[in-house]
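Request: How about a record?
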Amino acid sequence: MPVAPSSSISVVLAFATSITYILFLKNKSLQRKIKSSRKKQPRTTSKKISRRAKNDNLKLDVDDGDFQMKEIGRISAPFGMRAGTPRQGLLAQHTRSILTLHLDIPKETVDDLDQYSHVWIIFKFHLNPIGKGKSDSDSNTNLGKAKQKNIPRRIDFTSSKVKPPRAGGKKVGVFATRSPHRPNNIGLSLAKLESVESVETIGENGKKRKQTILKLLGLDLVDETPVYDIKPYLPSDVVTLTDIRSPSWVNAKDELASVQWTDEAKESLIVHRRNGMLEPFYGRNESNDDDAFQAISEVIAQDPRAQHEGRGIATRDGDSYKISFCSLRIEFTVEEVSDGFIAKIRRAFNDEGDAAALPGSYQYNLALKNEAGAIDMA
């Protein structure tokens, strides 16, 4: 006997309703499982992105533990090599340096900076040899593995202890020193801010542009040092002397008793300055030569020699030591007197560089520069 059409429709509707209800229950069960699994996972605030960050389409890199830093400028300094650079800039307060900000750094970033007397400079130890606590991604073999496994990378130390020049041969932990050989080649230095200026330069498109420079005093950085950040020095940065604690070797008084100039060295420095050999730091037309003399004297008074070069003792007869300052070489000897040691600056002469030095070093590049200049004049 045939089934009535109304009965067939009722059966179909009942079947469809049952299937829909079953799918609904399964979906609810799946949602409960997902919610339960999320509760079990640890909350990581580092992966939370604000609504504003989402709107700005920003990406937070939390995968490999690396932090990318952008270079904002370069240092121009009278110190072409690490040897002869002051160990602390404010110990040589008459040394001049210039921080030139890159053209893509807006000039508004330094608005009101000239209201501060001193600034902190965050920089890179760019002259570190490969292997000395190196952490650059190019030389760290663990970086690729860390990215693949989504784990923080491991830094390879060549040495976890160093011998500070003033510690008398004692080894201390690298974090207990200001050694440039660190797991990350980052340094922090304090300098006096002389002025903030805007100078005219030529951009990549050949057009004239304004570029920001900071003129600094008492900075202990080598020429061409990359700079990552500038921060103003605040009164609250000062620590009272009663609260300061440091090892005895840090407080050792090992400065030379005095620095003396021979007449020949004095006359040579004045002539070289008039010829522009100390520019752009000490102008040829400046009427006062004392600042250049004081700057060099302050550097040598700290005895820039390394331990193996005789630091802390008199130079042997016939021996001398030389440091680079701008385009000059300053030659001096150290003599013992009744109240300690004194330095005598013997000569100030043109630095010709050394073509036999390590390729890429200051002395090697200077030799190439002088050779090119000689060819142009020929």
